[in-house]
Design brief:
Strand content: 25-35%
Largest sheet: 5 strands, mixed, barrel
Shape: globular
Structural class: alpha+beta
Distance between the termini: 59 Å
Oligomer: single chain
Length: 163
């Protein structure tokens, strides 16, 4: 049987597609009603309000903490990070998966969340801060304007619960 270039190209594409797809995280599904959990089980019983953690950030720096708040913003590319704030739309703590395995629904803003992980503060350079602003903007929205470095609170989460 004679194989043409088109046959060879199709064969290569068919064989390579599963390997390429395995490297990309699955997009987060649309938010469902009710409780959703991601990551490992919680190890701490009581959650601290995110406002209290932000107000006493030095006390929590580098430590494991369980906190609760309102999802104010979600990465609109993959759902790979979200902000947990004292109120909807407010600034808060950027929650990222400790091992890049937790992806939340991209329409989770406004939901109550409880998260557990290691809390830290970080100063992002302007390019990184602009990237995060762009990823957080919904389709058709203009990303927040960023000038210079931006200090933010972050958490490397191991457990997330959305309500």
């Amino acid at each position: 049987m004679l194989l043409t270039r088109a046959h060879i190209a199709s064969l290569v594409l068919c064989l390579a597609t599963p390997a390429l797809a395995a490297d990309k995280p699955a997009a987060a599904p649309a938010a469902q009603k009710g409780k959703q959990t991601y990551g490992k089980p919680f190890t701490t019983a009581a959650a601290v309000p995110v406002a209290d953690v932000m107000a006493a950030s030095d006390k929590f720096e580098g430590k494991s903490v369980k906190m609760t708040g309102t999802v104010s913003k979600v990465c609109q590319k993959k759902g790979c990070w979200f902000e947990l704030a004292p109120t909807a739309g407010g600034r808060g703590v950027r929650i990222k998966s400790a091992d890049y395995t937790i992806f939340v629904p991209m329409d989770s803003a406004g939901r109550t969340a409880t998260v557990e992980g290691t809390f830290s503060s970080k100063t992002m350079n302007e390019a990184e801060a602009k990237h995060m602003a762009e990823d957080g903007a919904k389709a058709g929205e203009k990303p927040a304007e960023v000038k210079g470095p931006v200090k933010e609170f972050q958490m490397a989460a191991v457990a997330v619960e959305l309500n």
